[in-house]
Write a structure and sequence with these properties.
Blueprint (H helix, E strand, L loop, with lengths): L1 H16 L8 H12 L4 H10 L14 H4 L13 E3 L7 H4 L11 H12 L11 H14 L6 E3 L9 E4 L2 E4 H17 L4 H12 L7 H5 L9 H16 L8 E2 L1 H30 L1
This protein binds 2-acetamido-2-deoxy-beta-D-glucopyranose (NAG) (7 copies).
């Protein structure tokens, strides 16, 4: 664990200097994992406590950005954070789940399946995998797959190549969805406090969204993980909301922010609920 701790310290300082990350930003991942933790079964809580390093003190959310922090070190994992479609508004595993070199299964949906099946070996002493890493990857990737621009067009790298202004700030569309919308929401409504936003989303899970939550939790045909469902939803949100009215050079302001906010909130809620449901199926 010592090597890992040193690495995390180094990575955290790197992240403070270069706050450019793949996937929901640090707050997005903190939000999905914090929501998930409140919905763990006792068996999941026990397994997670067992697998987390001691310094995490049982708090999975504190390590939910680990997969971003180690991507400089584990370069092979970079392709596992997203899915590229060939500029079409639908997703197909066989067509889209590969890395740039064409290696199959190397996308966020393939990675969710991979780490789910590794974790199903929990309790089997002869497992060949590092299940601490499997848990941290899975928890991160279930968040990422809910960020609409993580299942998006190859041609613009999921919005990374679309330069826009967020109010007056120069940035790109991918970053707007990873971070800017969430940060502006925290600033404008919750006194810059991520916990205020987490509480509000949790309030919606038990009220506004309550009727839909059982449907989010389901993974049909006895499957343990359902990443294809989430990716198919994601590309539709990308086409209908993220890319709309956000072409190169556009200034995105109140109209864009206020109309996209409910989608970001919904996807964060779904990510949290589905991570808990997936881990609860894995650990029984
Ligand atoms: C598992 O991975 C963690 C995080 O990378 C690392 O700290 C730990 O040493 C690994 N465990 C084993 C047994 O290799
Ligand atoms: C966990 O176990 C405790 C007692 O051991 C029980 O009261 C509680 O309802 C359980 N919680 C869940 C989420 O199953
Ligand atoms: C599956 O997990 C192993 C161990 O982390 C990794 O080496 C491999 O690249 C992963 N493959 C996919 C498709 O996620
Ligand atoms: C435990 O893992 C080994 C090696 O991967 C496998 O052969 C065996 O079937 C597993 N046992 C159970 C009970 O899943
Ligand atoms: C799901 O699993 C249960 C128990 O293993 C089995 O009885 C049922 O037929 C399975 N359903 C499907 C759709 O595979
Ligand atoms: C895009 O902009 C047009 C013109 O302002 C507006 O009518 C439309 O509702 C906007 N669509 C979205 C999804 O924001
Ligand atoms: C709560 O739900 C409403 C209705 O769907 C939505 O507009 C709002 O953005 C949600 N807020 C949070 C914090 O989830």
């Amino acid at each position: 664990m010592e090597g890992c701790r040193i690495h995390i310290l180094v990575s955290v300082s790197l992240m403070l200097m270069f706050p450019v990350v793949y996937g929901w930003g640090v707050d997005g991942h903190l939000i999905t994992c914090t929501i998930a933790q409140t919905m763990f079964s006792n068996a999941t809580t026990d397994a997670v406590n067992n697998l987390l390093p001691d310094y995490a003190d049982g708090d999975l959310a504190s390590l939910c950005s680990w997969a971003d922090q180690i991507r400089f070190h584990y370069r092979w994992s970079a392709a596992l954070h997203f899915i590229d479609t060939p500029e079409v508004c639908n997703y197909n595993y066989a067509r889209d789940c590969h890395d740039e070199a064409g290696n199959k299964n190397r996308c966020v949906a393939g990675a969710i399946n991979n780490y789910t099946s590794q974790l199903l070996g929990y309790g089997n002493d002869s497992t060949q995998y590092n299940l601490t890493e499997a848990l941290l990857f899975l928890s991160h990737f279930v968040g990422d797959i809910h960020q609409p621009l993580h299942t998006a067009f190859e041609s613009d790298k999921g919005g990374n190549l679309i330069d826009v202004y967020w109010y007056t700030q120069e940035t790109n569309l991918h970053h707007v969805w990873d971070d800017s919308i969430i940060e502006s929401e925290e600033d404008d409504y919750y006194g810059e406090d991520v916990n205020g936003l987490i509480n509000a989303i949790q309030g919606n899970i038990t009220s506004e969204y309550a009727d839909q939550v059982p449907g989010w939790e389901i993974c049909s045909n006895n499957k343990t993980a359902c990443p294809d469902v989430y990716a198919s939803e994601g590309i539709l949100y990308a086409c209908n909301w993220a890319y709309k009215n956000a072409t190169e050079g556009t200034t995105l302001g109140d109209d864009y922010f206020l109309s996209r906010l409910p989608i970001v909130n919904l996807r964060l809620a779904q990510g949290g609920v589905r991570l808990a449901a997936t881990l609860n199926r894995i650990f029984g």
